[in-house]
Each structure stands twice: as C-alpha cells, then as structure tokens.
Amino acid sequence: MTLRRSLRRSLALVGLTAALFAPMVSAGPAFAACGSAEPRGTNDLGIVIERAAGRVKVVENTANATLATVDGLGDLSHASAVISRDGRYAFVFGRDGGLTKVDLLERCIENRVMQAGNSIGGAISEDGRLVAVANYEPGGVKVFDAGTLDLVADIPAIYGPDGARSKVVGLEDAPGNRFAFSLYDGGEIWLADLSDPKNPQVRKYPNIGKQPYDALVSPDGRFYIAGLFGEDGLAVLDLWDPDAGVKRVMDGYGRGEQPLPVFKMPHLEGWGFAGNLVFLPAIGRHEVLVVDSTTWTETARIPVAGQPVFVVARPDGRQVWVNFAVPDYDKLQVIDVPARKVTATLTPGKGVLHLEFTPRGERVWVSVRDTDRVKVYSTGTLAEVGEIAADKPSGIFFTARAGRIGF
Prior knowledge:
- By secondary structure, the chain is mainly beta.
- The chain has a domain at 1-39.
- The chain is 4% helix and 47% strand.
- The chain contains one helix and 34 strands.
- A four-stranded antiparallel β-sheet has the order 3-2-1-34, with no helix packed on it. A four-stranded antiparallel β-sheet has the order 4-5-6-7, with no helix packed on it.
- β23 and β24 form a beta hairpin.
- The longest helix is centred in the first third of the chain and has 18 residues, at 3-20.
- Mean pLDDT is 89; it is low at 1-28.
C-alpha cells in the first residue's frame, strides 16, 4: 500500500470515528437558516437596536457600515444587550421577556427563548458561561446557559415579611461569577454567587434606600453603585469586602433646592469613570455631579443643558459625553475632564438616545431616533464623520464590551 493511499484511509477512519462519537444536539426552535460567513475578526462589530421594528442591525465600526439586518426579536422598546466573551454573539434582552442570541458572523438568530413577561436588561458572567436576565414581571433574576439558553437558575425577588415580589433593576456582572442587582420596590441589593449555577448563594442587603432604579459596577470590579430615585443619594457595596455592608453616600445632594421634573430616568450603566473620578447625572437637576471614588465625596458640579440621561466617559477618560431628556433631547454636550466644564454642544437631532464609543475612543456613535439615523462623530475634532440609516434606533452595543466588567 502506498503512503498516499494509507494516509487517505487513515483520514477516512478519523472522519468516521468523529461522526460516530459526535454529541447529539437538539433541533430547538425553527429560525431562518444561517448563511455561510466569510472568515473575519469580531472586535469592530456590534449591533444597533431598531426599537420600533423588533430588529437589530449588525454593524462594523471600522468603516461605519451596516452589514446586515436581523428580524424577529420582539418588543425592543427598552432593549439592551451583552456580548459573548469571543465577540461572536450578542444576547439581546427585550421588553417582552424575550432573550435572543444573535450570531454576528452568520448574521442571524441562533436561539431565542421567552423567559418572562417583562424584562429590563441583563449581564454575562465573568467566564462567559452564564447569561442573567433582570425581570419586572415576574420580579426576579433568571440565569441561562450561554451556549444553549437552557435555564440553570431562577432567583425570585421576594422580600419583606409579607413575601412581596419586587421588580429587579441594575443587574451587573461582578468578579467571581457573581451577579449584583437591586430590588426597586424592596429597597434592597442582592449579591448572587453563581460559582455553582445550580445552587446559587444569595446575600441580601436590606434598607439601602428608596427605589434603587439602576446601577453599575466600577471598571475595576470593586464597587457596585446603585442610584436612588426615591431620595437623593447613592448606595455603594464594596465587592472586595461584602461583609462591610452597603454604604450610603451623597445623601441629600439636592437639599434645600426644589427638584426639577424628571421626564426620563437617568441611566447609570453609562456613568463616566475617569481615573478616580465618577461623573454622574443628578436626578431633578440640570447638573453632572463629580465624585471622588476613593472617598465617595462630591468634588464638583457641572451645569449642563438639561436633565442628563447618559453620562459616558471616553475610554481614555479625557472626555465625558452627555445626552438629555426632553425638551433638550436634541443636544449632546462634551465635558473636558481636566477643566471640569462643558467645552462643546452638538445638535445631532431630536431623540438622541444612546452613545457608544469605538474601542479606543477616536469616534462615538450616536443614535438619533426621530431622524432615523445613527451619526458618527470624531471625538478629536467633534466633526460628523459618518452616518447610517436605522429605523428608530436606540441602543448601540459594540463587541469591545466583551472585555469590560459591568458591560
């Protein structure tokens, strides 16, 4: 037998053995067939939510381009997303309780489950194996296998002596395959350790303040910070020392002044961390508060054009970009961090909803809902350098989030 013929025979046997011992995979729900993707990297990919149409656009931020549109994601009126650790998949959390796994390379839905009646966001674990969803109805957190979307844990948000059930907000990943979240109705923070997904260990911190409405984890993974809607102040849990309990900071920052109407709830996951400084929206005030995270004390207040919604730092921390609720929702303002003041005001159009920086921060993408456009700006010159058409765009989520804590 020739060497070539022997080699062919050996390869055939290897193929037969692999086929015989390949794992059985269930068919699952039927979706449109995925295409055959060309090989490429994922680090410049992302999605744009088309909130009214139940679709996402798969985009590339190198060329400021749309690559595909994926339909069938349900109610995306308050949708958010997280990215798999390899950057290939986006897990989209819909307001209708849908959890959808979108393949960014094949540009299709890989899987979708209806896991609740009303969900508000989610997080992905440190090791990328678990996806957790925060639910309003029924109140609680459900945790899924990131590969299969099989349910692995259900944590009802039951609190108080009467066993009431709370809406869950501010769900964030924390180091050690933990998830931290807040009970809006219960005024509590919970820390769930999912090291053993089938046996989650939940630690509860009651009486942290009225109506925690959103939260974030600091970029180093140390602090979980919840904002309070029912009172001025923040609640801070040190994840390095959870035995120390929750610390209240910035209490009464609006004391003595009449609060202004709040037309849209601020979003805290986009808070701006720049070194040891935190830039955050003041509820009921046309100000951005500057807080020293080493002491959790206020160091400055920056007047801005309206009620801030997102206060987002450029990746290098040199700039902070701010958008606003109505009636000032056509504006963007840029804060220079060293100067602690607004240095530019842009007017992209009505309905500025979301900002997302490219991985190194040289550009920022801005969703402008009422003009059906996503606009792209240079953060150096502040000039508009591109745009894409999108149907009522809202959230923008780039794959660079996969390597960041709390995103």
